[in-house]
Write a structure and sequence with these properties.
There is one protein chain. Strand 5 and strand 6 form a beta hairpin. The protein is elongated, with a radius of gyration of 21 Å. The protein contains six helices and six strands; from the N terminus they run H-H-H-H-E-H-E-E-E-H-E-E. By secondary structure, the chain is of the alpha+beta class. It has one domain.
């Protein structure tokens, strides 16, 4: 029965939404291709950095920090958000019957991610792509016309004009930056903008500004509820006293 419902739901989207729906499906191809390319990304040369304790930094942190010339799965903005279902429609469409709302929400979820990418490219990133976007199963509220979604956005930071020093003579420092709990934005766009602003301010401190990178952000937003947001940043410091210099470590080229 569930398979029949889902299959019927997809047929409803194709027939009931007509040309407008097809045009939107075509528009999602770029985001889908970016996600597939990201998922298939393989790196032949290991990338690694030194921690302040002298240990090797986890590879996912090294990749997120160093590989600014391409999108990597380790550097993401991950959001959980509530959105209105009618925001998923294109001009001329109307919402389907209640049994098909979750099908619609899941098909059109990437549209929410696409609407958030400009916030990143305005201040933080030179590139942004929707890696994944799904409706949370069972979260559709037909009476209120909304649902909960999970979204992952891959991004490349704008690091032009900030070349890295010799990695063998530096250690990678990290810090978790929390969103200001006093700031309760009315929209997820405002919440993400505020988190990006707070994160960039933390990166701008004198002891880290030259090499600071954003490793990832997370945000949980719903209207009228306390916002939960955080970011992870990293930067390079000179080797601590007593730590021995390693052989030179060459970073990948930065874009």
């Amino acid at each position: 029965m569930l398979r029949l419902l889902i299959g019927t739901g997809f047929l409803l989207m194709a027939v009931g939404f007509g040309a407008a729906g097809w045009q939107y499906w075509q528009g999602l191809r770029a985001a889908s291709d970016a996600a597939e390319e990201l998922a298939a990304l393989a790196v032949d040369t290991p990338v690694w950095l030194i921690s302040p304790t002298g240990a090797i930094v986890a590879e996912e942190d090294s990749r997120a920090f160093l590989m600014q010339d391409q999108l990597v799965a380790e550097r993401m903005v991950r959001l959980t958000t509530t959105a209105r279902l009618d925001a998923l429609l294109v001009q001329g469409e109307s919402l389907p019957a209640a049994p098909y709302l979750e099908v619609l929400a899941d098909i059109r979820a990437p549209r929410l991610g696409q609407s958030l990418c400009p916030i990143l490219t305005a201040n933080l990133a030179v590139a942004c792509a929707v890696h994944s976007a799904r409706v949370l199963p069972g979260s559709v509220n037909a009476a209120e016309g909304n649902a909960r979604f999970t979204i992952a956005l891959a991004f490349r930071q704008d690091v032009s004009g900030s070349e890295l020093p010799d990695l063998s003579t530096h250690v990678l420092e990290t810090e978790d930056v929390l969103a200001d709990p006093a700031f309760q934005p009315a929209t997820v766009e405002a919440a993400l903008t505020g988190l990006v602003t707070t994160t960039l301010a933390a990166c701008a401190a004198d002891d880290r500004a030259a090499t600071c990178r954003v490793l990832g952000l997370s945000l949980d937003w719903a209207p009228g509820e306390a916002r939960q947001g955080a970011a992870r940043i990293a930067w390079l410091d000179p080797l601590p006293d007593g730590m021995t210099r390693l052989s030179p470590i060459e970073p990948p080229p930065e874009g």
